[in-house]
Amino acid sequence: MSPDGRYVAVTVMDGSNKPKESPFFKDHGMVKIYRVSARELTPVAEDKVGHWCQGAAWSKSGRTLLVQCMVEKHIHAFEFDGNGMKQMTTIQVKGGPSGIRTAEP
What we know:
The chain has about 100 residues and is mainly beta. About 0% of the residues lie in helices and about 50% in strands.
């Protein structure tokens, strides 16, 4: 959930965590952002991410989204402007990032 409560980011493994031989395997996962309005979620943006991506965390400003991916051992950094997102960079880490959060305000 974004800090202002207006958006939620969802990581979707979409079969990227399955063996390549599996009929359910897909060569990438997705991150999707939805606008939260009363009791409705409206799709706003989505982008491809790596394999077996498990979590996402927003920056305090709500303009940066981090998504962790286990197989590639990296964290995707996205810029979000309220209407769309674009990948800024990836951060390589030594192990599979299995939990992520940002600092409390």
